[in-house]
Write a structure and sequence with these properties.
Elements (H helix, E strand, L loop, with lengths): L8 H7 L3 H13 L24 E2 L6 E2 L14 H13 L6 H8 L3 H13 L5 E4 L3 E4 L1
Antiparallel strand pairs: 1-2, 3-4
Helix pairs in contact: 3-5, 4-5
Bound molecules: zinc ion (ZN).
Zinc ion binds next to loops.
């Protein structure tokens, strides 16, 4: 059996230290298989990406969307890089991580950290998308 490769914390921070990098990563894994789809209705009848806002417009349901739409990152003001790091911490810690620990690590209020952990856990393991071996992201 192959040994599972997990990014070190140092490597992780190098790859995912900005929201731009995280967003690009998400677009790559979510849209790679069958192209860009509307996050609301899954239609492919969409406009080009607005370069300023990073949003697409769906000509089918007339809503705008981006890669965060209807994922666990949807409708949250928390930076994507913080979400990524929270998921990373959760998946690399042996006994899980408390909302207090997380809040200290990413410098957010404990209530916010609790909300994040709740969402991440709720997303369920079967929906995990794996990348680079050990680390994964939810949709
Ligand atoms: Zn749509």
């Amino acid at each position: 059996m192959k040994k599972k490769f997990v990014l070190s914390s140092f490597e992780f921070q190098k790859y995912f230290n900005t929201d731009f990098k995280c967003l690009n990563f998400l677009e790559k894994i979510y849209y790679e298989k069958d192209g860009v789809k509307c996050g609301h209705c899954s239609s492919k009848n969409i406009s080009k990406k607005n370069k300023k806002t990073g949003f697409y417009f769906c000509k089918n349901c007339n809503k705008r969307f981006n890669v965060r739409t209807n994922t666990i990152f949807y409708r949250s003001k928390i930076k994507l890089s913080k979400w990524f790091y929270a998921i990373y911490l959760l998946q690399t810690s042996r006994g899980g991580i408390s909302s207090l620990q997380l809040s200290k690590q990413i410098r957010l209020r404990q209530a916010t950290a609790w909300f994040m952990l709740h969402r991440i856990k709720k997303a369920g393991k079967e929906k995990m998308i794996k990348w680079r071996g050990g680390v994964s992201i939810f949709k």
